[in-house]
User: Fold these one by one.
Assistant:
Number 1:
Amino acid sequence: MANSSPVKANQASQATVMAVVAPAVGWMIPGAGHLIQRRWIRGLLLMASIGTMFILGLLMEGHVYKPNGGDILDILGFVGDVGAGGLYVVSRAMDWGQAAIAHATADYGTKYIIVAGLLNFISMADAYHIAIGKKQ
Amino acid sequence: MTILTFIPAALVLAPSHFTAAVLFAVFASVVFAITQRSGFRDQFRYGLYCFAMFVGGVFVAGWLMLLLRR
């Protein structure tokens, strides 16, 4: 009994740290929030799905939104894009997704990029729920 | 500098509307299944359900647009 309290306190502190670290890592690298919690298959599937979606969006010449304070749809587009974390940072650093839209399906590319970010927000929330023990 | 600087023009994707919608359905269904359900069996079934709803929605929206156009 005397030994169980420090062990429980240690587990609780690890869970608290993981509850912060897992979503943060999951934001930077989609799926990594699951991988650091040893959910290998789920993490790899999330990484493949979100990463592929974002890259396909870029290959379709989709638009990557910059931070802006103009049109509400542009603001929401930026919020969606930024959810992809590291992928968004790299795209902005390389100035990808800024070309003039040349064909109709480029609009699909823009939506792919936004939705990849939004799906990563859901993935981060799932990593958090695993970290606090709400989900296995 | 655009992404076209790094990849050949042949790799730029211009899928049909249907292909783009089906690819979207695949990736979104995988993420929904993993995050919204626990256990492989439930996740697999929910993923298939989401995929069917996405693709079914494409067909329904397609028919509605055709009817509205007439």
Number 2:
Amino acid sequence: MSGDKILSVDQLTMRFGGIVAVQDLSFSAERKKITALIGPNGAGKTTVFNCITGFYKPSGGSIRLAHDDGKIIALERLNDFRIAKQAKVARTFQNIRLFPGMTALENLMVAQHNALMRASGLTFLGLIGAPGYRDAEKRAIDLATDWLRRVNLLDRADDAAGNFAYGDQRRLEIARAMCTEPALLCLDEPAAGLNARESAALSELLLSIRNELGTSILLIEHDMSVVMEISDHIVVMDHGVKIAQGTPRQVRDDPKVIAAYLGADEEEAVAVMEGGS
Amino acid sequence: MDYFAQQLINGLVLGSIYGLIAIGYTMVYGIVGMINFAHGDVFMIGGFIALITFLILISLGLTAIPVILLVVLLVAMAITALYGWTIERIAYRPLRHSFRLAPMLSAIGMSFVLTNYSQVAQGARVKPIPPFITGGYTLHESADGFVIQLSNIQIMVVITTIVLLAIFTWLVSRTRLGRDMRACEQDQTMAALLGVDVDRTISMTFVIGAALAAVAGFMYLLYYGLVDFFMGFVAGIKAFTAAVLGGIGSLPGAMLGGLAIGLIETFWSAYFSVEYKDVAAFSILIVVLIFMPTGLLGRPEVEKV
Amino acid sequence: MTPIPHKTTHASRTAGLTYILKKSLLSALVALVLFSLMVGVRTEAGSDGQLTYWTRFGEVAALVAGVFGGSIVIELLRQWIGPAGAEKLVPPAVQSGMSFVGRYLAPALLIFTLLVPVIFYNQRYILDLAILVLTYVMLGWGLNVVVGLAGLLDLGYVAFYAVGAYSYALLATNFGWSFWVCLPLAGILAAFWGVLLGFPVLRLRGDYLAIVTLAFGEIIRLVIINWQSLTGGPNGVPGIPRPSFFGIPLDNSDDGLAAKLGIEYSPTHRIVFLFYLILALALLTNWVTIRLRRLPIGRAWEALREDEVACRALGINTTTTKLTAFATGAMFGGFAGAFFATRQGFISPESFTFQESALVLAIVVLGGMGSQLGVALAALAMIGGFELFRGLETYRMLVFGMAMVLIMIWRPRGLIGHRAPTVYLTKAQAISSDLVKEGHG
């Protein structure tokens, strides 16, 4: 598969005590493309995610992120916040983690914390009201406003995030992640709990992020309609190992994948497929 | 060497007292996830009640020592258990589904209430009693005249602790109540759905913890010969340190931690300095919580993202 | 929907009465057992060291009767108000009226405070009380940064107060440095200790963080008591110099301020000066906090309180964020401590007990939601309430403890029920306290 790889996962292993959650997993995600990580429950997808985004320290293997300028960063060695800050990897969470007591605008401003801290001279310039900081703050508000408009939440910019409907909260979380201006956006089940209309809007949003901004996306998802529609590349996991990968069409027709999801074994799946579906 | 042995005995006895208090902390933390700040003061109340009962019995003319001890023990346990129950009903149960901060601040408030209640009710002065159980055994006499002694009180403390621990372990592992407690510790909602009376189980946890603290108070009274209204604060922190050291949520851990803290305190006072012994205890708390938060026998927790 | 027939209502009400009586009787019985020995039998060590006692059954009876009556009243109130609780007792119209008042309350309060020395010029007692209240307002605002904004439960705030006080006291009595030189030093030293104490506790959550900070506070107090050569031990540090008006002493000497201004000297001058000094310090604390809230660091503190994991996922260094919160709060505590030392002229470890930490924490929690106005009002209520108990010190702490329990049950999020956002596009809408997290839980 040709193409510039932004994320290279090599022989990733994660052990919790005696349990091996992920075993020698290797896959890559292409730059400016959408890669989906799918598989039945308990396959280890969120574990992989947590390793990539710095919430777990891998037991073995490597995770390399290649930036546009050619710089390669070893993610398995970075600690939590540095992955977002230095490696420019942003993520959303399975159980939405917004700041419920803060407004939508404030949520998006917090996302731009590092840039604003630099502009405020580690707070001191900001404290004395230096113009440099005021300009930076204005730019930050503009970026936040831009994203709120993109996700159709501009009219609710001053509402508390905790008051938003579920679907709106999901979109807000994505907007917040994008405000960190990441190179790689990792989404943990972004379509969970969304109805058909909301899922379609989500697909549209993710496609526009890829097409207009060129951000690479890695997502875990169970909703096959979203996966099939937007993914450029799919990696399938089961029981901690990769069992298939390829384009959506390839993966959809792969008997191993069907077997994994049905809980049957491969021969039965092939039999069912050949017997006519 | 003989000095060491004597400190060893003293430390174990002090540790038994701390251990009994620590069990109350660890049980409550295990089942409702809160540090019962008022528990040390419950220990203090137990000591006071033991003192008062004592005085009454003696002035009534009773002389049979075993009878007096038994009556004081039972009365102290019963009334202090009621204090524990009342505190839970008034200050903690209404806040069970409230924010995390609320039960803790309520507990701090309750701690102030108990401390000052006993100060108002009984006066601020320390209350001494004459040594009630005297005598002991000389274990060893060294060449330079140092004597290792094991007093009768010390024997009594250790035996009472062992007996109570045995009863209590049986209670937790063999009875219905114990099973309910363990169920509530794991998953309150599920336990409730399965028919466990969660309110009652939690109440009983506080009651048992308070009863054990009362025993500790009673033995403290016998051992040191005095009670004062402020003894709950420091003893409480030390006992909580013991609970954390042993692994919060683990009962054998609480006792183990108690013995450890008792030994550390005794040896520190004996070999280093008496004035800073409390600093030593507090420092241990900090060190344990930072480097070994699950303690010696506790279960490690993984943060769920 | 069929209406409820009258008969059922009447029956439920009398059943209610029996229920209330039974419950009150039970409460009275419990009270009887609880108070029988502790209150009923009063022990005292006699002159010969022997312990004697006398009975006070009358008082037990009074208490039990009180519990019985009180229980009936509470049950009746509970039935009348309904399960909704006291918060819903205030109808929405009144609530919006209250927020209207709120907008003007802060400026009005400020103007009044500025005029206090003018209004109460000759009432030394009121001025002293006002200085005390302002000291606690400042402490509350300082701790508010740690607890209210960053959501870090600090039960040992008194340690920084002590560091500030002892820094100034020792520097002034040993080296003769002036208050104005020592004030920033006190703040810096306290901030330094804030970082030092903050470092080890970074990974701790909720209750554990609380008790470790409590332990730190106690350790500092014990060290102060025992390190006699440095701190004077339990005897404290006497003879701390009073502040001067920027170098001009405030006494009745010839180069005193009174002489310079050509007015008659009065000891009230110093009190008034101290009043404006603490007011200035407190207002500085307030101004810095409000500005910091609108800067990235302040927002990061509040985000930390809301969801620490999300902060990390956004690239925020939660370690430095927590440390800055500790350091900033500690610095203000240090300033307050230096002021305390110069006001009293004498400090001892007795002023820096856990009770002080608990009091300041209670003020912050009662104030609610990191709100500056709330903390100020709470300090006024608490310290003012304390003053009513002058002479009844033990009862004071007893009532304080009960008040803490009651406040937690009735209004655990504090007086001010909402949070004001720090940035908005069109309109600043107050965020209800139901949504705001309390942090670290």
